[in-house]
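User: Can you predict the 3D structure for this chain?
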Amino acid sequence: MTATLPTRVGIARWTEHELFGRRLYGELLGNVDLGQWIVLGTTGKLLAAEDSPVVTALAITLGIIDPRIWPLKVTRVASAFGRFTSGVACGALLYDSATLGPHTGTRAAHFLCDVARGRDAGASLEAAVDAAMDRQGAPGFGVPFRDADERIVALGGFLRSQGRDARPMWRLLEAITPVVKARKGLPPNIAVGTAAAMMDIGLGPDDVTPTGFALMQLPQLANALEGAEQRPAALQRLAPERVRYVGRPPRRSPKATVVDDGGGDATRP
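Assistant: Here is the predicted structure, written as structure tokens:
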């Protein structure tokens, strides 16, 4: 019995190929930019050309490349043996987390939608925020070690410069920010900013994480390429003087003990 595995993603033909039903060479080539191409691949939606700069802005905003931060540190360790693809793959695996990386974006998007539904049902802003936090917490809020997330500050500045800060989800985010801060003491971070910006260009909540993941690949690649080129010995193995063993002291196995059987021959029991 042959299994049937349907797909909407694409098909390869002899002279033409398709992505979500759109011809690569006869339709997309020369007519869409990289932002539209990425969104089409992650969502199946062809983004309007005027909205594509938001995708580029998000990619740059999310483009922190310092190899000292997770998961880029993992990328460096995995690429230290000379293969950049291994570095990219291992770093990407660290994103498979509900709290680290792009998965928070979809959770934050659902939080915003929850607040919006409460407002549509007639609740006050404060009541809608409180109800949403009771159900979901406050995903997308909280900034470690600093007062504000510089990434969402930069993204907000870009949106204002483009006249996009009055769109519904971004306006909602700005409205609920003081409420969440008053309730929990948490400022917004880039996850909820990314969610609002993406939904304002027509993406759904579940599109935020895969699209954000795609946009965060350049920092991974840049670190993996440099790590593979450097091949630092310090990341390939720890120097013995850097290792401290904490545990039971070494012992010799009884089976390895050499005994004399009385006949002058050394044997092992």
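The domain at 103-214 is CATH 1.10.230.10 (Cytochrome p450-Terp; domain 2). The first strand starts at residue 10 and ends at 12.
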